Amino acid sequence: xxxxxxYLLAAALTLTACRSSKHxxxxxxxxVTAATPAADSKKADAAAAALVGRIQSHSQxxxxxxxxxxxxxxxxSKTFDLGGSLRMKRNEVVQISLTMLGFEVARMEFAxxxxxxxxxxxxxxxKAAYTDLSFLRQARLDFYALQAMFWAxxxxxxQQGSASPTAFAISRQDGQTMLTxxxxxxxxYAFSVDESTACLTKxxxxxxxxxxxxxxxxxxxxxxxxxxxxxPTRMTAAFRLGTRDGxxxxxxxxxxxxxxxxxxxxxxxxxxxxxxxxxxxxxxKGG
Length: 287
Hints:
The protein is α+β, with helices and mostly antiparallel strands and 287 residues long. The protein has helices spanning 4-19, 41-58, 134-139, 143-151, 276-280, and strands at 64-75, 78-89, 93-100, 103-111, 114-119, 124-128, 169-173, 176-180, 187-194, 199-207, 214-226, 229-241, 244-256, 272-273.
């Protein structure tokens, strides 16, 4: 149990979102309108492209963002509350530091070339390329997709930089607006949008095959203006794998664009490196 907070957060960020490439709940397309008739397809394509353009124009343009964190981790009936910080440099790194009683107990670092997980309590770490992790590779969730989730942006899997506005389809039902990527071969990527503000409210990744029980959803709330651009101060991830569910909530405060910090973490020679598949294989067991 001493490993559990790090393991659970790592599972949510690197494992559960990706295993949905093999395991997804039935009926994942429920609540989405039927395909647009051919006569209206051009109009729908234009509406989708216009909305994506609005989202991108409202997104943060800063290259760096930092924030204080309050982290709530949930797994079944268990909950953990920690402090921490979030630090990001666009196209370079996403860092999450977890603290307890003022001391850093764990760090997660996502960079274009791989993932670094550091367990300060047990002096262990994992360093792996995205292609080394089969579930990430299968789901086509690389650094740029994970980065987009943290920056509250739409994305195309495997695509660096801004998503193409013409890649999306739009649907509206029951007051909800959703953007999807119809050309994605195996997975369904769905982005729920508040059209009045052009802000994302949810990102979902699921399989187009509906024969298993796993889900992943990342929701956004409590947007505030940061340098005249909206940014969510509350992000929640919820997942289910078989009979196990959990998730986490990140509550952000003191958001700034400070870039004066070390981009990549150096691991002490006193730490022991663990194999990625072995360590990540214990994530859902709580250590």
